[in-house]
Each structure stands twice: as structure tokens, then as C-alpha cells.
Amino acid sequence: MKKLTTYAFLLMLLAGSASCKKWLSLKPQNGLVRDDYWKTKEQVDAAVTGIYASMLGSNTDLPLAEYLFIWGEGRTDMVAPGVGTSASEYDIVNLNILSTNTYSRWSSLYQTINYCNTVIDLAPGVLKSDNTFTQEHLNQALGEARTVRALMYFYLARVFRDVPLKLAATLSDENIAPMPKSPSDSVLLQVVADLKEAEGNLPTTYGNKNTDKGRVTKYTANTILADVYLWMEKYTECVAECNKVINSGKFGLIGGDFDLFNELYYKGNSNEGIFELQFDAQKLNPFYNMHLLATRRWGAASNLMEDVFGVDHVNATPLVDLRGEGNSLRASDLTIWKYIGANSAASSLRSVGQSYAHWIFYRYADILLMKAEALNQLNDPQTAADLVNQIRTRAHAFDFNGSPDPNSQAAMEKFILQERQREFAFEGKRWFDVLRNAKRNNYQNIQYLMDMAIISIPQDRQQAALNKLKDRNSHYMPINLTEMQTNKLLEQNPFYK
Amino acid sequence: MNNKNILKLLVCGFMVPALAYFVACKKVDYGASTTSDVNITGYLEKYPDSFSLFKQILDRTETSDFLNAYGAYTCFAPTNSGVTKWLAKIGAASVEAADLTRLKNMVKFHLLTDTITTASFKDGKLPVPTMFGQFLVTGVSNESGTSSYTINRQSLVTQSNIKVGNGYIHQLNNVLEPSTFTIAQQLEARPEYSIFVQALKETDFYTLLNTVDPDTTKRWMTVMAESNAALADSGINSYADLKKKYSKTSSPTNTNDSLHMYIAYHILSGVKFLGDIINAPSHSTMEPQEVISVELINQNVVLNQVEFNGVIETGVTINRAISDNAATNGVWHDAKAHFTVKYRKPAALYWDVSTFPEILKLPAYYKKQSYTWTRINEADQPFKEITWGWGSLASTNIFTYSYSTTSSVTRYAVNNDVNQLPLGLPARPPYWEMTTPPIVKGKYKIWMCYSRSKQSSSSNMLCQVSVNGEVMPRTVNFTDLRPKGSDAELEAIGWKQYTEVRAYNTDSNYAGRLVGTYEFPTTQRQTIRITNLSGTQNNDYLDMIHFIPLDDNQVWPKFKIDGTKIYQ
Q: Least crowded by CB within 10 Å, which of A30, A201, A472, B129?
């Protein structure tokens, strides 16, 4: 009997030790929880990669690139609506944006910001649990997260002006709390601080050309910083950042025998690229149906060839700006060519499955033109003109509506703005370029916005639109109604009341 | 049972119901109504600080109830301060003291029977009239850096697009007042239009502009008034000057008198705010068969700016700041300069159809090589001035700019280029329509100049041509060769050689075919349509269309390949 008891006891011991212990712990069966994550350097790297992946597309919102395209181009003289344009998009074209507009949502950006915040908050803890995780490796991860966060906030500050500045990770529902807006100035200061800190931590290369274009490097931080300084009207600082990129000797303009369209847009990751969203066959960009004639939501404006790129009726062999037909657009059916075109002859389109043209945040031409703009503001229009001419020579640009006086700062400002329009057509920059130049020196040149509206706004809405543009608050998007309802501390932009 | 047990029982007795109480379901408050959204009246009641007076007006006029029922309305709701100002203006001490009819009209003028958000606000009238009958005019104004929507230039929208159960509310800072004067009365009240008004009276148009026709289809008119200053710029300083200049018959009421025509030319039928005016290229006036053409040039509304034979005639600008004045029977605008009906002598138009705006944008193709456009679907319109009926076989909806110096189709064509469009039932496009450059009114012979081609030896392509919807008597067949004969012989049978003279066999493909005579009633851009009657093929090549005044030489000039004219 005693033996039996002993055996029974042993058997139960065995059963107890072998059986599933976790009957009381509740963990998801097909996911990871934070307590089990943030242990190794590989997990940190994966989280950083997640930041980039979140920029390619979101599960809960439209892809980031779609917002960036519409925010950067929708209100400008570059685009025209097509057969598939939605009511929200028409309202953007007509400057009739309401807080219910689909494109006044910012969640896609804040989602990426939260991924960045998570890395910034939790990656340092991994130093304790993984001996092979070095301080240098951590710094690089933090640098990447800070740079992307800065870029997102820079977009938010340009699109919405004042936005909530959330710098701590939202890790669980307990972290969700209403949050007021921060003024755009303090958002930009945070952007500058993040970028400066990241600059020292980021590598100059990851040892692979494609990775260098798709992940942020030190030069990405410099480039964004140059753009931020230009927006903040700090020109000396802008020139200094541009020089860092120029002097690195790592970038150059595509030219000579190379096919500009093929290298820059069709293949992507060119020598000119600084930071690109690398869509691929697994993750397509949102532009195919948006630009395809049959389903088109956005096409090129009809006056681009004659008014922007120039049409040469004089020479027997006409001069052609390489950035027009077969590069930015296909003039015959006004298709935006950069994202869905397949060749510079403008004859064949990409197939649906090939719709992975990169979204180019920055490329070297931007550095040269930003430097030119800053130098011109520092009253050196001649050097600015030399930089612009580098771009123009590369693109075979020709003078069809006169060239500016190289000694006039005002004329050069306008000329650089026009050159940016040609160079970065449909790259999501036009609205920000015009607004930056218009708002300079306390809106000295608000006329730039008006001139654009005269071209882009339908005739019967022009007067209303022009008077709206006189209100500076109208240059920024409303906060979406859902955000207003969920975050009671937010205050709507007064223009949209 | 000892005390302890009793105690235990008691405790249990209390605990169990207590526990049951805590864990029991809470009563969920299910709403009895399907929605908690308020309607227009409900919203106004919710904010008495802003709307108590307007609500009071609605109560007194017995409109509260219907604005609380379901429907689709847009309500422009003036705030209390606005209503107070208005009451003071009409001399009423309170809402109760005000005249009921006046209040009723006021309410009607603030209501639309449709849901209109600010997204529909344009530079002009709203798409639907108020329940009072008059239209509201919207705009945007900017005061010290802040832009707001304006309604009728009387009030600012201080809060917009408030969505309620039965429509939208826009909050106003002032009460809107309908116009109470006619166009004629409004102009007469302004001394700066004295000459124009006197001319209105002398020509009897004053009576017309002073009537509010109960029939709304006839009531509305639009006037382009000229101020004394605008007239003075043209050397007219008094009514006497004006009369001397124009009135050639003794009576200005005579419709043949130029003064009568001058005034009639300034009146359009229908209520046309500037936002409406710029939406059509031309508007007919009270002067029969005379139109005013309109263009928006650099935000300016410009009347009668036209290009004839390469010469641009500068038009007259409308003074936006003091235009769009609504009256009980229409609207009037101010023209910055003097203008009147212009009599032009009919002039020939030799229209090279293959020089159209869309091809001019493609310097790599225009006068260099052929280019083909494909229409993706029926809604797709790649051209501003060319269209065609959708062919059921989608792949035939292709339009080609055809250029070659060697092909037999274009080697002798003007500029070596022609336009090509497949035509013909059952599958190809049924018709081909074009908008011409401006043609001066008058009687013209119309010649279709084409490059003959047959897709196959049996192809046929018989078409009729219609101008502004009127069918021309003769047909044209794109597969017919030009017959042999002298110019005179050919002209007698409705043919001509429009290209440079060559031996017949070399260029018999290039044929001018007279389709008929047409009297253009107005000077403007006209519509010409080629409709297929029988046969079907792709090879329909159109080179030119000649519109030649009846009395002019129909055969000469002819055209060289480079486009220069050869005269006899």
C-alpha cells in the first residue's frame, strides 16, 4: 500500500512536471507580446525594418504615398481630375476641403511615428538582455527611427501646421490620452533636434547601393534638415547641410548617355536617389489605377507642355526638355508618366504587377535646387543661377519664355520655383514649394499661390478660391472630423469652422 | 443550532443577495428613438443664445414644425444679433411686433429645398432658388486676413455645414434680404448710369426691365450696363452724343434703329451671374441673332475678344467688383468699356482641320510624324474641339493625326497632314463632330476637302454633313475620286481642286466637295458634323473645310503643300 502511494505520488509528480504549465497564463497563440520581444538585436533590427514597411502601406489607412501625392499635388496647377476622381479629391482641387475630407486624415503618418517612438523607447533596454548588441548598433537604430519620425512630423507641420507632438510610444490602451496641438514652430524645433541627433549616429552607407537608397543614411538626415531649414527660412544652415551632401561625393546627376526616365523612375535607386520608398512586386505602389486613363483619378494638367516644359515650334529638330514628354507625362493623353510609364518614348505602360515605381522623397537634384534657393535668399543669385543651370543642362531645358536676370533676387526666386516645377513634376513637392516661397518673409509673395489657383481652379470657382487663399489658415488642411471627435483637446484650424 | 451557526446563516443570507446584486446584469438603456440626431428646429432650440430670435420667427410664421420633420433642406440661420439689427432696420420692436408677411418672406428667403454644403458654393448663384423664388449668390470675402463665405454680399457664413437630421444649417451674422427693386429701378437709382438709363427709356426697354413677369420662364434677364465713365472713354459724354452716334432713324424704338440694337445687345435672357456667364462660350442677346462671346482671361471676364484671320480684337472687361447685382427680375453687371454690335463682312475661312490644339502640344509629331489617340471609353474626351459618336467596337475609337511626305494619302495634302477617323455603322463611330474657329454670320458655301482613300476595293463611305444641326443637301463620299474637268466644269457639279494644280492622275485623290450653302445666324464658333449614311471603313481622311461667302470666288485660292495660298 505504501509502495502504491509512492508510485502514485511519483506518477503524479511526473504528470505534473510534464504537463502544460501555462494553463493560467493567457497569451495570444499566433502573436508576440512585448515581454517576449525586445530581447535581442535581431528583434531591434526587425522593428526598425517595420518602420520602413509601415511607410509602404498601412493596414488601417490608405498608403502613405497616396497621401503624399495628393497633399503635394492635388491643390496645384500640375494635375487635373479624371474619370475616377472622388468627391473628396474634387474638393481638394477646388479648394473646398471640409473636415470630412478623406485626405484630411493623418493616421497613416502617426502610425509610422508610433513605430519610431516604440523603437526609441524600447530598443535601449535590449542592451541589458543581449550582450552582442552594441551601443553603436543601438545608436544606428535610434538614428533611423528619429530620422523617419522627423520626416513624418515635417510633413505634418507642412500639411496641417499645428499638430499633436507625440514623442512617447503608445504601447497599450493605457497610453491613449487626449492631446492638444503643438504649434508648428515647436514641432519643427523637435524635427531639427531629432535630425541633428540622428546625423551623428547614422552610417554613411550600409555597404549596398540599394539599401543606401531605401534606408536613411547620414545624408538623408542632412537632406531633410536642409529642407526643414529652407522651410524655416534659415538659409545659412540650409546651405551648410546641402554642402555636406554635395561634398560627400556619393551622389551625382544622371546625365550623358543615360536615359533619364529609365534610370531615375523606371529602375529607381539611381545614383541620384537619396531616400526612396522602395515598392516592389510584393508591395505595389498605389498609383496604377490612380493614373491609368481608364480609371484615372489624377492626370496631368493640360497646359504643362506649352507653359511649363516648353514646346519648340521654331527649330527644324525641336528642342525638347527631357523632363516633359515621356518623363513626367505623356502629353497625348495627359497621363502622369513617372509612376506608370515603362519607357521614355511614352509608348508602353507598366503592367499592373509592375507598378512599383519608387516614391522618391529626395534626390540629388533637390539638394542642388535647395542650395540655389537658399543662396538666392542670401542674395547671391549668380551662384544660384549656376546651380540651376547644372540641372537645366542635364535636362536639355531651353528658354521658351525668357531667362531671368542673374542679378535679380526676385526674378531668380521665381525662376528656381519654375525649375523645381519642371524637375520634380508629380513628385509630391509642388504645393510645398509654392507655399514655402509664398509664405517667405511674412507672405511677401502670396501671389505665387494666386497665380497657381488661376490655372488650377475651375473658372466658376476662381474668385471664391482666390479669396480663400488670402486667409493663411486655408493653406493648411483641416483636422479630420474623426480625430476631432476622439481627441477632445484638439482645436480645429479656424478657417474650417 | 448554536448562535455561531445562526450568525453564519445570517451572513450568508445577506451575502448571497448582495453578491447577486453586484454581479447581476445592469439595465441597459435602449433608446426609444432610432436616432438622436436633431432636425433643424431641434438644433436651433439647442442653441438659444445664438438662435432664439430666429426660432421665434419660425414659430410665429408656423414653419417650426415642418423644419422639424424629415426632408432635405438647407437653412441659412441668422444669429440673434443679426436678427436684432434687421428688426431695428424694419422698425419692429420685437418679433411679435413685426409684420407677419414680411417675416414669412424672410423665412422663405433663408430656406432651400435641397441639401447644399459649402462645397457647392461657386462664384455665383446657388444651384437651387430659395423658397422665396430668388436665387442666393455666394462668394468668399477676406477681411483682415480671415476668409469667409458670403451670401448675397449681405452676410458672412460664421459657421458652416452643420449637419442635422433633415439637412444642413449655415450660420449667418446678418439677415438676408431679397432685392425689392427691378433691374431698371436699380440702375436708375445710380446717377453714374444716367446715359444708359435714358437710352433704356427712349428705346422702351425700360418698361421691360421694370416688369417682374409672373411667368418665371420669362421673368429673368441679365443686363450689361455701361456707366457714364465707360461711355465717356469712347467720346460719348451725354445721351445726345449717344443718340447722335447711333440713332439713324427718327425713332429709337424702331428695331432697325442702331440705338435700339445697341441696348438690345446689352440684354441677355435668363438670370446669369458672372459664374454662369463664363460657363458658356457665348450668349445670345435680345438683339436677334447677335451673341456676346465670353472668355476668362487672367481672372477677368472679357466680352467679345475674338481672333479673326490671326488678328485679335481686344474685348471689353466686366468690372467684377460692382457686378453680380441681383434684382427682382434678374441681375446686372457693369462693363468697363463701351461696346455694341459689330457688323463684320462675311470672310472666307479656309480651315486646316489638322492643326488642332492637342497636336500642337506634341512638337515631336506635329508636322513630323503620325500620331494616334485612343478613346478609352465613351466618357473619355481627349479633344477640346473634336469628338465623335462612340463606336460599339471599342478599338475603332481611334483618331489619327496622319503625316507623311511620301504616302499617297498626304503627299499633296496641305502641310502633308490630314485627320483620320474610322466611321460607319454597325461597329465604327457613327459621326464625327468638330467646332470651327469663329465664322462671321452670313451665307457661305461649305466645301469638304478630303484625301480620298479606300480601305479595300469594295469600301464605301457616304456621309452627310450638318452644320449647327442642320443637314446639308449634298453628301460627301470619302471614297470618291475628284472627277476630271476644268475648274468651271467641276464647280458646276459641286467639285473643286483645292490643292495646287497638278496633272489629274497625280492628285485626283485630293478633292473638294461642295456639301451645300448655309446661312450662319450668328458670328461665333460653329458646330459641323459628318454623319455616316452608308458604308464603313477606317480610311476617312479629312484635310480642310472651306467656308466661302456665297459671292466670293469658290475655286481660288488653292493651296500649296506648305499651306500658302495661290491666287488665280
A: A30
Nearest chain B residue to A88 by CA: give it. Answer: B119
Cis peptide before B426 (omega within 30 of 0): yes
Q: B140 pairs with which residues across the strands?
A: B149
Report the residue from A332, A462, A474 with minimal CB separation from B373. Answer: A332
CB of B502 closer than 8 Å to CB of B432: no
Q: Is the pLDDT of residue A18 over 60?
A: no
Give the separation between CA A292 and CA B389, rounded to whole angstroms: 23
Q: What is the pLDDT of residues A161-202, one digit of tens each?
A: 999 999 999 888 887 889 999 999 999 999 999 999 999 999
Distance CA B402, CA B420 (A): 7
Cβ–Cβ under 8 Å, residues B122 and A460: yes
Nine-digit cell string for A154: 515635417
- pLDDT tier, A15 (very low <50, low <70, confident <90, very high otherwise): low
The letter for the amino acid at A159 is V
Tell me, yes or no, if the two domains B40-172 and B183-335 fold the same way. yes
The edge-to-edge listing of strands for the beta sheet with B73-78 is B111-112, B73-78, B167-172, B155-164, B146-151, B138-143
Do A99 and A481 meet the contact criterion of CB atoms below 8 Å apart?
Answer: yes
Question: Best residue in A332, A456, A495 to probe B by mutation, most B CBs within 10 Å?
Answer: A332
| Record: contact B140-A467, CB cut-off 8 A | yes
Grid cell in block for residue B312: 485679335
CB contact under 8 A, B362 and A325: yes
Confidence (pTM):
0.79
Q: How far is CA A89 from CA A69, A291, A453, A468, B79, in A?
A: 12, 14, 16, 18, 33
Q: In this predicted model, what pLDDT tens digit does every residue of B342-387 receive, in sequence order?
A: 777 888 889 999 988 888 877 778 888 888 888 888 888 888 889 9
Identify the CATH assignment for B349-566 out of 3.30.420.40, 2.60.120.260, 2.130.10.10, 3.30.1480.10: 2.60.120.260
Domain range summary for chain B, segments of one domain joined by +: 40-172, 183-335, 349-566
CATH architecture of B183-335: Roll (2.30)
Angle B525-B526-B532 from CA coordinates, rounded to 5°: 145
Q: For the domain covering A38-78+103-251, report its CATH number.
A: 1.25.40.390
The whole-chain average pLDDT of chain A stands at: 90
Per DSSP, helices labelled H in B214-298 are 216-219, 228-233, 239-246, 258-264, 274-277
In angstroms, the CA B148 to CA B146 distance is 7
Chain A residues with beta carbon closer than 8 angstroms to that of B362? 305, 325, 331-332
Query: Which amino acid makes up residue A110?
Result: Y
Element (H, E) at A73: helix A64-73
Q: What pLDDT is recorded for position B249?
A: 82
Q: Phi and psi for B140 in degrees, rounded to 5?
A: -130, 135
Burial of A373 (0-12, 13-18, 19+ CB in 10 A): buried
- What is the ipTM metric for this complex? 0.74
Residue A250 identity (one-letter amino acid): K
Higher model confidence: residue B284 or residue A225? Answer: A225
Q: Answer whether B251 touches A (CB < 8 Å).
A: no
Question: What pLDDT is stored for residue B18 in this prediction?
Answer: 63
**Residue A286 to residue A281: CA distance in whole angstroms:** 12
User: Which residue of chain B is at minimal alpha-carbon distance from A329?
Assistant: B362
Is A468 in Cβ contact with B140 (below 8 Å)? yes
Residues of B with Cβ-Cβ distance to A83 under 8 angstroms? 377, 379-380
Using a CB–CB cutoff of 8 Å, tell me whether B145 touches chain A.
yes
Distance CA B78, CA B52 (A): 10
Q: Which residues pair with A485 in a beta bridge?
A: none
Domain boundaries, chain A: 38-78+103-251
Q: Is B14 helix (H, G, I), strand (E, B) or coil?
A: helix
What is the sign of the dihedral through the CA atoms of A302, A307, A310 and A311?
positive
Say which CATH topology domain B40-172 has. Answer: FAS1 domain (2.30.180)
